[in-house]
């Protein structure tokens, strides 16, 4: 049976796509990992919460290895993703970094007592999938050692990967899909059992959790057209997912355009287009336990 989390998403079915996406983010995430690990003490404990397929787990292991070693705790609620992240991270840090998996649901369980206080917690796009987001931030903050850092990768700019006029359907389909995705996200949160709104920015949430030295920075993932096939394959993954979640919110003509773009036999198949690209800007919000 598929394993669904609070958001109703079967994340295990997206494993291959998440791996592909992580490979395209690897260079940017490696720079972020080095930045976050650099100020930590010797042999730190670092936690990757909602580790997924390990897109940040491997960069964190590499950064810890260069830092002289440490412990990386991987936390996820989906067994298949946790196994994949653990295997990739152990290969990268063998003999220098200890990798410890924890299968747990942050909203329902307390995985954070596994190692004791943690010097750095990384949580990328996971808090907004919890019913009570502020409670999730507070639980992570409480697990930090004095002086430890919480880094939330949340928000940024809309990911772009298609030209505005695709020659299929009406111009502006990427913008209409972005609006439809926002509607889906609101509906997803409203239908989540026990959902609580977070009507403030992430910096305020970090302050409400008792953290100080709050700040943020952004990083860019840029694969311009004409892109390598790996980007085009990722674009198929992305568009397939967007078509699935936005379909009910789109005009029938847009759904017809999506069917053409996702049909390998069609001349406009997105996986064979030379004008596909990947451009995204993600923001990391950080706070420190006093």
Rg from Cα: 19 Å
Distance between the termini: 44 Å
Average pLDDT taken over every residue:
93
Strand content: 15-25%
Structural class: alpha/beta
Helical fraction:
25-40%
What's the quick description here?
With 290 residues, the chain is α/β, with parallel strands linked by helices. Helix content is 39%, strand content 23%.
Helices and strands in order:
Elements: H1 15-37, E1 45-49, H2 57-67, E2 70-76, H3 79-93, E3 97-103, E4 118-124, H4 133-142, E5 144-160, H5 173-190, H6 202-208, E6 211-223, H7 229-246, H8 252-261, E7 278-289
Parallel strand pairs: 1-2, 1-4, 2-3, 4-5
Antiparallel strand pairs: 5-7, 6-7
What features would you describe in this structure?
The structure is a single chain. The protein is α/β, with parallel strands linked by helices and 290 residues long. It has eight helices and seven strands, in the order αβαβαββαβααβααβ. It has helices at 15-37, 57-67, 79-93, 133-142, 173-190, 202-208, 229-246, 252-261, and strands at residues 45-49, 70-76, 97-103, 118-124, 144-160, 211-223, 278-289. The protein has a seven-stranded mixed beta sheet with strand order 3-2-1-4-5-7-6, with helices on both faces. α3 links the parallel β2 (70-76) and β3. The longest helix has 23 residues, at 15-37. The protein is globular. The chain starts with 14 loop residues before the first helix and ends with a strand.
């Amino acid at each position: 049976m598929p394993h669904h989390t609070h958001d109703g998403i079967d994340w295990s079915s997206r494993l291959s796509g998440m791996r592909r996406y992580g490979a395209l983010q690897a260079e940017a995430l490696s720079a972020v990992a080095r930045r976050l690990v650099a100020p930590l003490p010797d042999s730190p404990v670092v936690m990757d919460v909602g580790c997924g397929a390990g897109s940040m787990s491997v960069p964190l292991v590499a950064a810890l290895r260069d830092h002289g070693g440490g412990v990386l705790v991987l936390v996820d609620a989906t067994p298949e993703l946790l196994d994949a992240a653990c295997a990739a991270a152990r290969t990268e840090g063998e003999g220098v970094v200890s990798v410890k998996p924890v299968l747990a649901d942050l909203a329902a369980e307390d995985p954070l007592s596994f190692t004791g206080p943690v010097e750095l917690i990384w949580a990328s796009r996971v808090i907004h999938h919890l019913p009570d987001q502020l409670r999730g931030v507070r639980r992570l903050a409480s697990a930090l050692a004095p002086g430890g850092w919480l880094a939330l990768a949340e928000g940024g700019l809309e990911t772009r990967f298609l030209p505005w006029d695709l020659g299929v359907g009406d111009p502006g389909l990427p913008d209409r899909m972005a609006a439809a995705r926002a509607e889906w996200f609101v509906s997803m949160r409203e239908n989540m059992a026990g959902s609580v709104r977070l009507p403030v920015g992430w910096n305020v949430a970090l302050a409400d959790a008792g953290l100080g030295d709050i700040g943020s920075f952004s990083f860019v993932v840029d694969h311009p057209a004409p892109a390598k096939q790996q980007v085009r394959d990722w674009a198929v993954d992305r568009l397939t997912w967007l078509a699935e979640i936005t379909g009910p919110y789109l005009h029938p003509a847009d759904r017809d355009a999506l069917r053409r773009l996702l049909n390998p036999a069609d001349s406009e198949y997105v996986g064979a287009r030379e004008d596909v690209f990947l451009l995204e800007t993600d923001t990391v919000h950080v706070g420190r336990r006093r």
